[in-house]
Every structure is written in structure tokens, then in C-alpha cells.
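Hello Y.,

Per our agreement to keep a running log of every chain we model this quarter, I'm adding this entry. I've kept the format consistent with earlier entries: sequence first, then predicted structure.
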Amino acid sequence: MNNPFGSFCDGLFLDMCVTTQMKLPRQRETVLAFFEHIQRRFPTLRQFSRREQGELILEEEIDGRRFRWVAMESQRLSAGCADPDDFEQAYQLQHEVIEIMPYMLGITPLDIDSLDVTFTMDFDYQGNHDEVIAEALLGNSSLSGFFEIPGARVVSCCPTMIAALTSDGSMQARIALESRSGLLDRNEKNKIDEPISLYFTIRRYPSGKTEFAGVDAFTQQCRMAEQLMFERIIPLFARPLSNAISQRR
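Predicted structure for the entry above:
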């Protein structure tokens, strides 16, 4: 499947993240063997580094911009892709990480706390992010009435919602919008260069009813995330936000 979401935003990221119950191994030989295996399978991932907080990351750069990466933290293993030409291009790297993690890092179903598949959409806008989010998503709802208090103005609007997709809550969908305006002084609200970000995540927790099969679970979550992006996220969130930004430019 080609990437059909790029026309709705200014940046698209597809991430997979495994969170573990126990700390991941830090032995030099184990860690290097894992990243060297990834590099053999994906030779363009050449940049290996250790960040200030201890995160280890192997990444690929194209024209000075990070394109694909695999990262290991204390209890998180993740892989991502920026602006993929198609989803399968992103899934290949993530599938490989999930497939080898039991053998090379000892991450078994017993150790997995959660598995996330996340689509992130960035929207460039230099004005007040909170105002445009409220305008696009609250509309004439009862929530918008909060900002109709005489003399009031929007200074924070970062909605987050979570829905259980299964009766036992082991599968959940989460949507969150992040404004960067709140990071700035009030006099700088209209000077921000960072984008508005929309995060949509399908999260699965291991269920005691069935064995957690990492590769199968990942594939199912990817398909579910794609379906809900088409059916819910694009028409109800991404398109209204894109339209509101266009009207203000």
C-alpha cells in the first residue's frame, strides 16, 4: 500500500515501540550484536550513537534528515520511519526488530508490558497552536463554551482520548494532539516554528487468555491503525485541522 496520508500533513512518522517489564540487556557484546544484525539487514542505517539519557540509537540519514531508526532505552525498544513512500517500507524494519528481539535481547512474551503502533502527523503552523486546535476540533461543542467566557482566550488545548477496543481492555486506541505554543512566553505565541503534532496509537497489552505472539500482534495492530486512520482520524481530526490552518494563512 502506498502512503495515502502525506497529502493531509507536513510530516508523517510511523513508529513501533515495545515496553518491557524488566530492563533490557546492556552487555556490550549483546547490544552490538543486535545492532550489527540490524545494520546487515538494512545497510543504510550507519549512524550509531549514545544519547545523554543512555538511549542507544542506530539511524539512517538522507539529505541530512533522519529517515529510519532503531532505538534502545532501559525498558523500551523502538523502530521508526519518517515520511515513508509506503507503509510496507516502514514495516520491514519494525517487523525485523520484533522478529529477532526474543533471540538476541531475550524479550519474551512474558516480559512484554505493551506493544504500540503509532502514526504521527505534523502540521506546520506559526500562529497560536492552541487556538487553531480549539477552532478545528471543538467547533460548536459544549467544550468550546468554556472559551466563550467573556474576556477569555485559549492558552492551552491539547486534547487526549483513549478507547478500549476489546472487552478486556487489552487493545486500546489513543489520540492526542500536542501544541508547542505552551512552551513559549505569551509574547512569542505567534513566532513558533515547531509543528502541531497529532499522535494516533494502537496499543496492545498481553492478555492472560492467549499467548502474546509479537509478529502477529504487530501485523494486526498495523492493519487496525491504517483502517482507523482512514475511517476516523483523517476525516474527524486531520482534515478539520488542516482546513483551519489553511483558512488562517
